[in-house]
Structures are given as C-alpha cells and as structure tokens.
Amino acid sequence: MNISKQLWDSWRGVNTEHLHAAGGFFSEKEPEPINYQGEFYSVKGPLNIEASPQGYPLLVQAGSSEKGTEFASKHAEVVFTAQNDINDAITYAHNLKNKVEQKHGNAHEIVIMPGIFPFIGETREAAEAQFQELQDLIVPEMGIELLSSYLGDTDLSHYDLNTPFENIEVEKGNNIQSRVDLIKDTAKKNEYTLEDVMKHVAGARGHHIVVGTAEDVADRMEAWFTSGAADGFNIMPPLNPTQFDLFVDKVIPILKERGLIQAAYSEGTLREKLGLNQKIHS
Question: Whole-angstrom Cα distance, residue 75 to residue 103?
C-alpha cells in the first residue's frame, strides 16, 4: 500500500491537461521517481501511467478481524463487512471510526457497507416459504464443503447435521478469523445446528439475511442506517434477476419516500458519489 500510494503520488504535480492541450512532453523531473527502498521491495518509479482523476483508485477493504480493522483504519475508504447483529455492527463501526479519527482526524472519510441478503415476498409468509424452498435446494455435501473452507478447512464430514454447532471443534488454520467469529456468534445466539449454519453460510455467505416484505427490508435497512450500524449496504440478492428486480421495484421507492436514499447520482467520480474527498495523499 505504501508503494502504491507513493507511485500514485508521483504524478501529484503534473498538469496533464496542460501538456495534452499543448502537445508537450514531460520534463525529466516529473513525474518524480519514488526511489522506494524497503525490506521486501525496491521500486524506482514513477508510475508509468497517468494518475486517475481521483488521484487514487477508491480503496476498498473487506474483513472485520482486529488486523483487518487496523489495516482498514490506515488505508480503506470503503469497508465491506459481514455483520448479522445490529449491536455488534454498531460496536464495530464505532471502533473502526474511532481508529480512523485517531489516524486521520476525520471519521467520516470511511464508508462502512455491510452485505445484506434480502429475500422479498408479497407477504412474510410467502417470503419465508420461498426462502425455505431455496435453502432446501442446497446439497448438504456441497454446503458442508463450503462451510469447511470458511472454517480453515475444518473437517466436518464426520458430524451429524443435527449436531449443535457449539459442540463442533473448529481448527485454527488458514481462515478469515473475523468470518469464523461471526459464524460462531451467529450460531450461538440462534442455537443453530450444523445444518442451520451450513445453510446460512451456503445461502448468504454468512451475510445478514432479511426475509419478509419490501417494508420489512426497508425497515431493517433504516434501523441499521439511523443507528450508525451502516453507512450503506452491499445488496446481495439471492436470485437474479427476480429478487434484484423486486428490491429495485419495491424497496427502493420506500427508501426514497423516507428520504433515506439519493434520488439521483451526483456528478464526478465514484469517490465523489460516495461523499469522500476527491483526492487523497499519504
């Protein structure tokens, strides 16, 4: 990240619009070499392509572990996270933004966007029935294999699917610790069996599932947004295009009526559309 930022910064003083208009050439001093010397890399630079209008590409980070949060507080502008409990999400957001405030002086220069898995029906009962039908299509062997990969390749094949998940020993290995902790916490709070956890992970990759009417989904999103649990959301529809279309046609108008969503996109780069600084430097 330090090398990348220095390479992007090597174009900081170059007026490319003027050079293009005049048909001119770069001088020997610009863009400037970075002459980076580190423990693992030595990079002369400068970057061999022009800087983007944003200065840096938008820096997006995923992960909620202690190390991931520390890394995000230093570098990230958008954080993609998996959260299932609103109180846990508020605590995570508060902790991360405090770290950002300490390092950069502005907690609003980071946008937290949890993944949300909305399953929408005309009624709650219809949504629940359709969601269960979809969950029942998960092949147990495939679901267990996927869950095992999330748990650092813990061997789950010898467990009965009705085993309470808290009775399963998860090996420490090559896994994403924040996701492992999330799976464990969700299973404990809901008293999930191995089958319940397998379906939860296989269906939504461990992200927040909302099953109900369009109003139910909008209510949940509003509660998370107004409480500070989320600045926005990554929408992960379970079926495309049907559930995605339902979200756009049914949920978006409700959010607009409540003044919770923009009516139109602003001009400019993606960073500007998210309300972040147009150009940042290390």
Answer: 10
